[in-house]
Design a protein that fits this description.
Shape: globular
Distance between the termini: 53 Å
Largest sheet: 11 strands, mixed
CATH class of the largest domain: Alpha Beta
Number of helices: 12
Radius of gyration: 20 Å
CATH architecture of the largest domain: 3-Layer(aba) Sandwich
Order of helices and strands: HHEHEHEHEEEHHEHEHEEHHEH
Strand content: 15-25%
CATH topology of the largest domain: D-Maltodextrin-Binding Protein, domain 2
Structural class: alpha/beta
């Protein structure tokens, strides 16, 4: 097994690509991942290729989609490489704003994380887990599944984001609509406190506002743990991975640097840099450190990008079943 993993690496970038990137001297990266994560990844790239400056712009996925479309329509394309939430990414992809590029690194990824026509890759995901306050939830009462949270003892103890439609969509893909909607209806009876934003939810549970966040982000919980907050997470089956899409932009101002940067993010070195910030990475020869905190053989279920056209439908269904106006 070890020998196979070692043989998976892609060949070094072609010298012509490096020379071209060196002449361009810059790459513009639009990223929806957290700013600190983007900065660390770009710093690793600049260390490897000191002759290329990365201009990284942290921007929310929805705003990024609007900006990319506006820039393309005005023929003032600025971004070279984009990385954003897969659902928003898919909408931009459908408008023909990305370039097909078969990175030599793509062979190291499972088929469900790469586009057969070369337009996109899914290089990372945020793990959806259950988070709980360790001072409020005894070790022998820690919920093992999302279904456990429908038990009477959790009534009035739960928090949840006002929009978990993507997680719900992933659950439907895994369990089927009937079982998932039954879960949602039962959760809706638990007097859940709804707030907006997972960072806020995790912070409130760590502070003792309520005992449990039904759907939390594992990497966000880990940041609070590093600050000695009394919060922990557990990977309930299934662990839905909220995926990110990544692509080289059509008519990119720095096409060679764009491809080189894209290759780096998909390389073993780049994937290790992304994983070090608490994200799950799918590259076959990289072990995501965050999975060390989950049970052995935990399976991450990537949220399929193809569900994006039904996003509004999932959003409306979630709001309705959870009783949100």
């Amino acid at each position: 097994m070890t020998g196979w993993l070692l043989s998976i690496g892609a060949p070094a970038p072609a010298q012509s690509l490096i020379d071209g990137a060196k002449k361009e001297g810059q790459v513009v990266f639009y990223a929806s991942m957290e700013a600190v994560s983007a900065q660390r990844i770009t710093a690793a790239f600049e260390k490897k290729y000191p002759f290329i400056k990365v201009d990284a712009t942290r921007i929310g996925s929805e705003r990024m989609a609007t900006r990319l479309v506006a820039e393309a329509q005005a023929r003032k394309v600025r971004a070279d490489v984009v990385q954003q939430s897969a659902f928003d990414f898919y909408g931009v992809f459908q408008k023909g704003l990305f370039e097909s590029y078969f990175s030599p690194e793509r062979a190291a990824f499972p088929a469900e994380y790469r586009d057969e026509k070369g337009f996109w890759m899914m290089p990372a995901a945020t793990l959806n887990v259950i988070a709980y306050n360790k001072r409020m939830v005894p070790a022998n009462e820690v919920p093992k599944s999302f279904f456990d949270l429908t038990e009477p003892k959790w009534k009035g103890q739960l928090m949840m984001d006002e929009n978990e439609s993507k997680w719900m969509a992933g659950m439907i893909q895994y369990y089927g609509e009937a079982k998932t909607m039954d879960l949602m209806r039962r959760l809706a009876q638990q007097e859940i406190q709804f707030r907006t934003g997972h960072t806020l939810l995790q912070t409130l549970v760590a502070a003792g506002e309520r005992a449990v966040v039904v759907v939390a982000f594992a990497n966000g919980v880990n940041r609070l743990k590093k600050e000695s907050a009394p919060i922990e997470w557990i990977s309930a089956d299934p662990v839905i991975g909220l995926t990110f899409g990544m692509a080289v932009v059509k008519d990119a101002p720095h096409p060679n640097a764009a491809r080189l940067f894209n290759d780096f993010l998909l390389s073993r070195e780049g994937q290790e840099a992304i994983a070090a910030d608490g994200y799950y990475v799918p590259r076959l020869d990289v072990l995501s450190p965050i999975l060390k905190e989950a049970p052995p053989k935990t399976k991450v279920i990537p949220l399929p990008m193809t569900l994006a056209p039904r996003y509004n439908e999932y959003y409306q269904t979630y709001r309705k079943v959870m009783g949100l106006k």
